[in-house]
Amino acid sequence: MAATTTARPDGDMSWREVGELGLRYGRIPLALVIVEAFYWFLTLPSDTLAPIQVTEAWIWNELTNIIYGEGSAVISHHNGWLTRIDLVHVDFPGPYDSVGLYVSDECAGVHEMIFLSTLVMMTDGVPQRDKLKAVGVMCAIVYVLNILRLVVFYPIAVESCAAAPNLQACLTPMWRWHEAVYTWGFLVVLVGMWLVWFIRYGGPARTLAATKEDPSPWRFERRRRWELPHKAMLGVALVLFVLAFSNIFTNQEAIDARDTLAFCEFASQLSSECGDAQLRWDDAIGYAWSLSALGLALGIGTFVVVVRPLEDGTWPTPEQQGISKNEGEHIESTGGDAPESSDGASSEEE
């Protein structure tokens, strides 16, 4: 009895190929988790991204006044930074006919830019230069979309408050818009942008081909060659750790806030002074975590290097990386073979 075989359609992948592709992209969620953790520690204190927040608040204010009329928005300070925007309309609730908002570090769009950049940079089968161009273009698009998200607040609030003027509930549609974009709207846009870019560069077929050609395109190793800039970066990382600890134990404002909180807890006291002390102490802790995260990232980034295989597929040896076998000492070549000493050993310059 003759056996019949069915040919697999062109472009269809076997289960083994699917598994290889899955393992290849298993690094992406791991990288996203690491980046999320780093961003969380970095932005623990309030207004960590203040320069970006200030520029976005200024653009938001100017565009609102240009599009909806002069006096529609007023910019002012929040926590010492020019990030507060008051939207003004006669139908808005409150004695001043205004709605007070501000651009926080989470509303600056940097979180979304980092997320999208990680997706792009971890994608295989695409030249590095094309990845960097894509990151630049996509981050610019995210920045513009974030500004448009802020500018849309005003017409949504005006439309709903015109139907129910001077009622606090008329602002609910505006808050719903903010919540929808914040929780899932931007995520859909970001993943959609990456998918369009990914498919444009060949999609899974190109990635699978890259997997077959180069199953392990890079790996991490400890740095063996130490030069002055590397040692300087480790010094900067150490300084960041010292600043993190000093921000808690030697910062007088943080010490006063801690003492005030201890008294408030002892006396079971609830007051505005206790609340302010809690905010100052939380910021001190947040800055310590933020500086520690930067120091840790700088230290790991200096101590660990990315090694790529040679053209023949083998991994470079320490000698090929310019390192001697004697505990990673750097061999300084002077333009030719090293002169041999009388006992036949090559001389090394210490």
Summarize the structure.
This protein is mostly helical and about 350 residues long. The chain contains eleven helices and five strands; from the N terminus they run αααβββαααααβαααβ.
Question: How does the SSE layout of this entry go?
Answer:
Elements: H1 15-24, H2 27-42, H3 50-68, E1 73-78, E2 81-88, E3 98-102, H4 110-121, H5 128-151, H6 153-163, H7 172-200, H8 203-213, E4 219-222, H9 228-249, H10 252-266, H11 272-303, E5 304-307
Antiparallel strand pairs: 1-2, 2-3, 4-5
Helix pairs in contact: 1-8, 2-4, 2-11, 3-5, 4-5, 4-7, 5-7, 6-7, 9-11, 10-11
The low-confidence parts are 323-350
- Helix percent reads 55-70%
Count structural domains: 2
Biggest beta-sheet profile: 3 strands, antiparallel
The overall average pLDDT, rounded, is: 77
Provide the succession of SSEs.
HHHEEEHHHHHEHHHE
Shape assignment: flat
Q: If strands are numbered along the chain, what order do they take across the biggest sheet?
A: 1-2-3
The helix-and-strand class reads mainly alpha
Percentage of residues in DSSP E strands: 5-15%
**Rounded Rg:** 28 Å
User: What is the tally of beta strands?
Assistant: 5
Cα distance, first to last residue? 77 Å
* Tally of contiguous helical segments: 11
Could you explain how this protein is built, in words?
The chain is mainly α and 350 residues long. It has 2 domains: 200 residues, no CATH class; 115 residues. It is built from 11 helices and 5 strands. Strands 1-2-3 form a 3-stranded antiparallel beta sheet, covered by helices on one side. A two-stranded antiparallel ribbon has the order 4-5. A hairpin with a 2-residue loop joins strand 1 and strand 2. The longest helix has 32 residues. The radius of gyration is 28 Å and the shape is flat. The relative contact order is 0.09. The C terminus is likely disordered.
